Amino acid sequence: MLRMSLDMVVLRLHDERLELLLTPRAQSPFAHSWQLPSLCIDETRDRDLESALSRLLTEWGLGHCYSEQVCTLGNLARDPRGWSTALVYLCLVGPDINPVHGSWQPLNALPGLSLAFDHGQLIAKGLERLRIKSRYSTLPLQLLGSVFTLSEVQRAFEIILQTPMNTAAFRKRIHRANILVDTGHKRTGKQRPAILYRLENPCCVMFDQVMHGAEA
């Protein structure tokens, strides 16, 4: 029997680190290994991929979040039970999202975890998409809360791209994207008050040129 699943690489940015949503697998094969949120496509319930993805997001309590299809992988080797195909999606959620299943695992803890099937490869594909697209779009803003400061925006890019940014040039680029709205409020604390912004719309906007770390 051909198995077709929808697998999600769900990421959040929490305490200045990227975290991945995983759950322990209860049954064989790969019992007690960690796996990505997934479901088998059900032709009696899922009219199309969008409805299947919506069902999966609902089952995990993730609600409406940014998602995009990354790739499709299929072969005889990825599942010992036989040929299988995985439709891989990248999903980005805010820092305070608490799913009804699984737990958040820091990315730097992955080398010490036993992963089911080829989920290590699926995670690598999702991370590659996030990092590449973050160089030419506003995608990292999907990982922030409902309101945020420009410093928090810059820090999100720096964590994902693993490189510092030139603050003046970065802020100029972000403002040119014309997607931020000044909320009229400021965040106060140990640092001087900073303007709080929100996204004007949830769309991912493309920059006019690729960023190159500190040269951005």
Notes on the protein architecture:
- With 216 residues, this protein is α+β, with helices and mostly antiparallel strands.
- It folds into 2 domains: 3-134, Alpha-Beta Complex (Nucleoside Triphosphate Pyrophosphohydrolase), CATH 3.90.79; 139-215, Arc Repressor Mutant, subunit A, CATH 1.10.10.10.
- The protein is 23% helix and 29% strand.
- The protein has helices spanning 49-59, 119-134, 150-161, 167-176, and strands at 3-14, 17-24, 34-35, 38-40, 66-75, 84-92, 103-106, 180-187, 194-199.
- The strands form 2 sheets. Strands 1, 2, 3, 4, 5, 6 and 7 form a 7-stranded mixed sheet that branches. It has a two-stranded antiparallel ribbon with strand order 8-9.
- The longest helix has 16 residues, at 119-134.
- It holds the Pfam family WHD_NrtR.
- This is DNA mismatch repair protein MutT.
